[in-house]
Amino acid sequence: MQARSQHAQWRRQVRREAYTQYLTALHDRDVALDEVLRALGPAAHPPHAVEERVREFVKLARQVHRSAEVVLLEGPASVAEAVSRVSEASAALSEVMRTMVARAREGDSSRHSEDSALAAERSAALWDAVGRFRHAGQEVLDGAGARRRPRTVPSG
Q1: Which of 9, 111, 112, 156 is least crowded, fewest Cβ atoms below 10 Å from its Cβ?
Q2: CATH number of 2-147
Q3: Hey, where are the domains in the chain?
Q4: Which superkingdom does the taxonomy of this entry point to (predicted)?
Q5: Taking the CB of residue 53, how many other CB atoms lie within 10 A of it?
Q6: Could you give phi then psi for residue 100, rounded to 5 degrees?
Q7: What's the whole-number mean pLDDT along residues 35-47?
């Protein structure tokens, strides 16, 4: 019984670390995305500054992918589904960013307002998906904790 309890505690800690690293990677990547979008804003930055921010974003996006792989490995399915929703929302927002970067490279600012509005909409969808991931992770961690508690034998 003690070995099972220790294993459950170890498993919970491994999952907590995987979930935390994933959330940290998402946060860092999204800060980099904000920097890209800011560089594309009305106060135009030189192209090399935008490219530098894009490179940083790509580097951090790779870290998110690596962290997601660990979360998927640690499971369970409910958390994997939440990661999938985050990935889809991230991809949708990244698509807008890539479009905005491509237009900036071409010197086309005619659709900047529309693109910015779409980026804001997709950013909100991403944070909704991240919130759902947090909730799924908390449920798993809380559930693991509940299974660790000693059960009482009903009297009678």
Answers
A1: 156
A2: 1.20.120.30
A3: 2-147
A4: Bacteria
A5: 21
A6: -65, -40
A7: 82
